[in-house]
């Protein structure tokens, strides 16, 4: 396998054995907008604020989310700022654009288009990442195998030669709540990842269309060769195991409605060590 495929598979592939009677085409009920998160903060183990994310909605449809990271080496107002703008067709998210808004004029750095079938199942995504003199395209196609399993194929294209490279393929398994439970690589046997969830509500659960998206990218950790699994669907991650990375675990504090208001994330190497603390604020 070439280096491109190897890098893609190592971060994206996950074990795919599970059973469920849920269908990806099912749509969650639309709930009152009071269940929407409007701000998330991330702090380091010493309590220093690292990232603030704010959300803008139109009803239960997300309009945008803005990320601001502080750089303490240069001052708390220096770092980076990104905005992600969402476009809907009906109740489906069909485009997301990521712009660098740290300095004027703002600069478009990434755009992803999502396509669906007549049953509102995601069938493809095409992400373009823009650089000064070229762009990289990451194409992912999806095919439903059964009610809880999908197959995916990933291709990359560099505009400097326009050669389409098949990077990876695999399977995705969802649990009954449409969480991404496990994925498995067809290309690399034994390269597995897995996710465990609680039974509480994810802060982004009530955003219309979010449960349809499988892979997408948010600031600031973009890569030209892979995309990240979208895990904010129904419930909250308790444990993550990804090859090549330390396992992580999360400890939540919930409000009376069952939504997290704080998450302490631990990286498990030589014992569990606090990695970050997230706080959630709602409308």
Largest sheet: 16 strands, antiparallel, barrel
Gyration radius from CA atoms, angstroms: 19 Å
Average pLDDT rating = 83
Number of separate helices? 1
Helicity, as a percent range: under 10%
H/E element sequence: HEEEEEEEEEEEEEEEE
The CATH class name reads: Mainly Beta
The oligomerization state is single chain
Report the span from N to C terminus.
48 Å
| Shape category | globular
Q: Would you report the number of β strands?
A: 16
- What do we call the CATH topology? Lipocalin
CATH architecture: Beta Barrel
The percentage of residues in β strands lies in over 45%
Which ranges are low-confidence, i.e. pLDDT below 50, for 5 or more consecutive residues? 1-33, 74-78
SSE-based structural type: mainly beta
Q: How many domains is the backbone divided into?
A: 1
If strands are numbered along the chain, what order do they take across the biggest sheet? Answer: 1-2-3-4-5-6-7-8-9-10-11-12-13-14-15-16
Keywords: Signal
Protein name: YD repeat-containing protein
What does this 3D model show about the protein?
The chain has 283 residues and is mainly beta. The chain has one helix at 3-12; strands at 37-43, 49-58, 61-71, 75-89, 92-100, 107-116, 122-130, 135-146, 149-158, 163-174, 180-185, 192-197, 237-241, 248-254, 260-268, 272-282. It starts with a helix and ends with a strand. Residues 1-33 and 74-78 have low confidence and may be disordered.
In short:
This protein is mostly beta strands. The chain contains one helix and 16 strands. Mean pLDDT is 83; it is low at 1-33 and 74-78.
């Amino acid at each position: 396998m070439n280096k491109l495929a190897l890098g893609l598979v190592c971060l994206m592939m996950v074990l795919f054995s599970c059973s469920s009677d849920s269908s990806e085409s099912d749509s969650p009920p639309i709930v009152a907008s009071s269940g929407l998160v409007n701000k998330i903060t991330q702090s380091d183990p010493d309590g220093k604020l690292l990232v603030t994310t704010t959300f803008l909605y139109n009803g239960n449809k997300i309009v945008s989310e803005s990320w601001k990271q502080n750089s303490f080496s240069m001052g708390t107002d220096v770092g980076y700022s990104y905005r992600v703008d969402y476009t809907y067709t009906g109740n489906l998210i069909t485009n997301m654009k990521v712009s660098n808004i740290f300095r004027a004029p703002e600069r478009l750095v990434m755009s992803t288009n999502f396509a669906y079938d007549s049953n509102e199942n995601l069938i493809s995504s095409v992400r373009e990442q823009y650089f000064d003199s070229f762009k990289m395209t990451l194409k992912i196609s999806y095919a439903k195998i059964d009610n809880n399993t999908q197959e995916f194929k990933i291709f990359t294209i560099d505009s400097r030669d326009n050669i389409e490279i098949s990077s990876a393929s695999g399977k995705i398994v969802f649990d009954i709540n449409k969480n991404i439970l496990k994925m498995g690589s067809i290309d690399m046997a034994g390269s597995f990842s897995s996710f465990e969830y609680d039974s509480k509500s994810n802060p982004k659960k009530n955003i219309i269309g979010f449960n349809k998206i499988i892979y997408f990218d948010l600031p600031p950790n973009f890569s030209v060769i892979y995309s990240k699994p979208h895990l904010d669907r129904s419930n909250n991650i308790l444990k993550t195991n990804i090859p090549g990375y330390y396992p992580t675990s999360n400890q939540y504090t919930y409000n009376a409605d069952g939504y997290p208001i704080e998450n302490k994330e631990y990286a498990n190497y030589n014992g569990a060590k606090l990695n970050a603390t997230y706080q959630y604020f709602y409308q």
